[in-house]
Structures are given as C-alpha cells and as structure tokens.
Amino acid sequence: MKRLFVSDCEGPISKNDNAFEISQNFIPNGDKLFANISRYDDVLADVMHKPGYSAGATLKLILPFFKAYGITDKQMNEFSAENILLISDSQAALKHVQSISEAYIVSTSYEHYIKALCQATEFPFRNTYCTKVSLDKTAITPQEKEKLRGVAQEITEMRKIEIPSKAQRVEDFSSVDQASIERLDEIFWSLIPKFFVGKFLLDVVTVGGEQKAEAIRDAVKRCAADLADVMYVGDSITDAEAFKLVRAKGGLTLSFNGNAYAVRTAEVAVLSETSLVTAAIADVFSRTGKEAAINLIKNWSHKAMKANEVEASVVEKLQRLYPAELPKAKIVSAKNMESLSKESSEFRGRVRGVVGRLG
User: What homologous superfamily is domain 4-15+85-132+207-357 in, according to CATH?
Assistant: First the structure.
C-alpha cells in the first residue's frame, strides 16, 4: 500500500509568495496593498469567521486591482516562471517522495504559478490543486479602473491592522482598526461587487481553508486510500483546516517553517532551510506508518534516521550539511506550543524574508 504525501507549495516547497510578488512588481505600493488586504483576510477568517469565507481569499480580493493596473495572464505566466525561488533540495525531496508514495501539491497559489513550479521541479501538474483564474476573460471599464486605483491608494495608506490576542469580534479592535475593517467591508462586499470585476469575488474559488481539506479528501478518493494514510505539510493559516482534518483521522501533520496558525494546529514542527528533513520523515511515514515517524522525531538524530533505514542519499546529504546537529523537528505539545510558534515564526522570516510575515 502506498501512503499519500500532500504538501502546500509556498513555504514547504518554495520561498515565494507569488501573489504578493506580482502585486509588488506591477502595482504602485503593491506590497503595502497586498499586506493590508492579507491582514484583513486574517481578521475575516480567524477572528470574525465570516460565513462562507476561507483563509487565503486575499488571492481573490486582490484580483480587481490586478485588473485595474492592466496585469494580464501572459504577464502572470512569465513573471511566475522567471521568479521561482525553491527551498533548498525541494526538487530532490519531491522526487524522493514520489518514488515512495502518492504525492500531491495542494496550494492556494494561482494556477499560473503552480504550472511554472511543476515545470521547474518536474512534478506532475495533474497531481495539484490550486486557485484557477483568468484575468483576460473578465472585463473592466475605464471608470472602474480609475475608481479601483483610487481605492488601492486608500488601502495602502491604512495603518496595519493589529489583531488582539483574544479578539472575537470587531469591537475588540482599536477604534482606528475598527474603522479600517468597516471600510474594507464596504469596499469588498458593497462597492466592488457592483463592478464588472466583482465577478472575481463571485466566481473565483481560492484553494485555502476548507477548500484545502476538500482537496485532500479528493486526493484520498482518487487513490482509494484513507485519511489516516496522509502526511500533510503546511505552513500558514490556509493549512489549518487541512491539518485539523488529517490529524483527526489519524494522519500525520507537519508544520514546515510555519507561522503561529500552522504550529498551533499541526502535530510536528520543523524549522529547516532544506526540504530533506521533510523527505526523511515522509520516507519513514510512507514505508512504516505514523507511529514510526513520530518515534523518529522523538529520537531525532542521524543515528535514528539510519536505524529507521531512511534513504541513504537523504541521510548522507543531511550529514554533509549538518554534521553536528540536524535542523529542528519537534512534536508540538501544550507545553512547547507558544515557544515553538515564536521560534518557528522568526525562523520563517529569516528563510523567506518579508513574505514570511504574511498570514
């Protein structure tokens, strides 16, 4: 029986945040625009629990502004292919897990980027789930373009929303942030839906939150397997529902350089600059199951990897890269969760730079 290896893309496989990078490259102050919309996304998904809303919908909310600034599908395709930044050894890790398990990528990223990444890593695109959209097929009027450019400037000038640790409703935010949230609600749920480009908000389904969980269910069905046979790797709030699903059914969940959202919902936290750590754990999980993989992590060392007969090429390269001590891999517990969340978030920022601070 082959088990399933399922991974998010941006974070565990690549360093990119493709949508952020497109915004930064093609839109004036696009980095600030994207970051502020991303924080609003966190508010809706994690605090307000807006009905029908999934984490990761930033990729839907930003699309009207892509259109307003004249970005085309061709530009997205070319930019994505030219700017892929892989986590070290991710191509070798993907090749190894494909040899020992059924392997899938489940990503919130746009189809443009996932196709480019599959070509760069020789991963089969048919085994991916991602956000499908065409900018060219949606119309925009000159009046909409002008209005949206003004709105984009307004959003970039907003102060970054600060999310209180125990916030559960809009009244728990500062008065300034309440005003920002209310204005963003008006922009995205009253103003833009009246435009031709409001079609993006209605029709585009971002693969985040529950959609990632549903993608895993579909992959399991395709393989005639069980959720207990799944090892899922993620790194952000968009992976929380996938983590909860797989963990509840007895599969293995791993946060790779995850932020606090990921560490708090995963069973294992890995802090690493190389994907070979993931490959080593996947090797044991795929061959002998979850219990053996957990025992490997509890006894995390070069010696334990050899004892568990991890693929020799993976062990040898990890020994060359880390002769004294392996990158951190820890079981997440109530006792270490907060310290691991902080450490992982900081490490994430060092590996991925500014995009590591996005939700």
Answer: HAD superfamily/HAD-like (3.40.50.1000)
